Amino acid sequence: MNTHILSEFDEIYYDLEQITINDVYIKNRDETRIEFNSLNFKSAKPKNLSFHDYFFKPFKDTQPNTYRVLSQVKEKFFYAIERTDMPEIMSDITAFGININGIIIYLRYTPYISDDAEQNEYNFPVEIVKSWLWHSAGWYISDGVNYGPLAPSALPSSNNPPLGSICSDIEGKGKKAREKVAFLEEKFGQPFLVDYEDDDSYDTHFQLRALIDTRFNLLEQPKNFQLFSIVNHAKKDMFFIENEDVYSVKKLVNPAEAIDKYAAHLLSRQEGFFDFTAYGEDFQY
Asked: What domain of life does the native source organism fall in (predicted)?
């Protein structure tokens, strides 16, 4: 699907003992930039575990269909570097990832992976936290050496933009925006947070935060889906919309199972696309 991106890197290391952070050019080198570099997976992983066991074993009981796919992967994890040709402006670009059946997947590192998983600020299903987000801050299918913090992740990540970042037409004071916000507020039975600069509204208004967005350049499918958790609401359900359409919102029934089957379908390269509407249910709170 996207193995061509490997040719865009200048160096790829499949043995991470051959590379240290001192070998990476980081402009204005400081501890923050170093702490967030994915090479830190090397020290985060217990020495007696392989990367395969470290990342894949948590899926065994929580995402069994995905685990069956991951457990067959023989490719090694890699750390790749695209050397900067403008060192006065930018650092080297680096990525940590693996080839799963012809799909290059990057895993994101932060020093807060364990804390974020424990806090689960956005109320994700525990099965998702204890698999996808247990040892990684996110799984990304990219079409280049880099990926932005708000790029559609296709797989679960802890970059969780609010609904307004995906459906920007709900922001503002136009008639259509007001109608969509009113629709959501009637559907969920609570005011919806639109203005993120209004600190007083955080305690009274609910949010929808994206866990998965199936829009990405290399997957051609007749529909795309955005999956959301709900924050600051009495319910702790998951929801999805189709093609960034707020009016299509449905409750996601059995979200851990739905995500498990979706990921297994995607990573095993099955024909066709996974339709989340089979797990959709209308609702009114």
From this structure: Bacteria
